[in-house]
Design goal:
Largest sheet: none
Mean pLDDT: 93
Strand content: under 5%
Helix content: over 70%
């Protein structure tokens, strides 16, 4: 089981790396990531229906996750002077095809589609009900380092991966307690939207 999880988890890394470092395009990285998710899901045939993405047993989990997700973007925006952000961050983002004019469509797709695919892949397809640490939590967090490298300082990159590992663990627990994945999905949407809006305001 451990080896299967590692194998499934590595294809998304390859897709993101290829999009950013071979094609130098954020859309290529994102769409490659999503194609990787879909292919693995088709092959692995998860038992749980995609309907679980829209299922929640407790409103409190939904509201809590939306709140926490929304705070992510605020943290990115207001803490940016302290994260060792690259001096040419704006040009680095532009080289990936993301500018003030192109970011809105990217933000819309990323915020609406990415959370659905990520949550179904990481929390459903690679499902594990353990209350302790699970290697899938680290795999979920780790590929974000590919996105952050050379854009923020190494200590901050490590800290973000550590925080995302905890978030991956937390969202698994929410799914287990809540009986559905709607709360993590909406929390993920709020996080993606608020973080990318912070990036938009930074590069605008």
């Amino acid at each position: 089981m451990f080896h299967k999880v590692i194998f499934k988890g590595l294809l998304p890394y390859l897709a993101v790396w290829a999009g950013l470092f071979l094609f130098h395009n954020a859309w290529a990285a994102l769409l490659g990531l999503h194609i990787a998710f879909v292919l693995i899901i088709i092959v692995s045939k998860p038992i749980a229906s995609p309907k679980t993405l829209f299922k929640s047993g407790h409103l409190k989990w939904v509201l809590l996750n939306i709140l926490l997700g929304g705070l992510s973007g605020l943290a990115v925006y207001f803490l940016r002077p302290f994260v060792g952000m690259s001096a040419d961050f704006k040009s680095q983002i532009a080289q990936l095809g993301l500018t003030a004019s192109t970011l809105p469509s990217f933000i819309a797709y990323f915020s609406l589609v990415n959370p659905l695919l990520e949550e179904y892949f990481w929390r459903v397809s690679l499902e594990n009900d353990t209350k302790g640490f699970y290697v899938g939590d680290l795999l979920y967090a780790g590929y974000h380092a590919i996105i952050l490298v050379q854009r923020v300082s190494l200590p901050v990159t490590i800290l973000v991966v550590a925080c995302l590992t905890f978030i991956g663990w937390f969202w698994r627990q929410v799914k287990r307690e809540d009986g559905g994945t709607l709360a993590p999905v909406l929390g993920h949407m709020a996080a993606d939207f608020s973080i990318l809006m912070s990036v938009y305001l930074i590069v605008k």
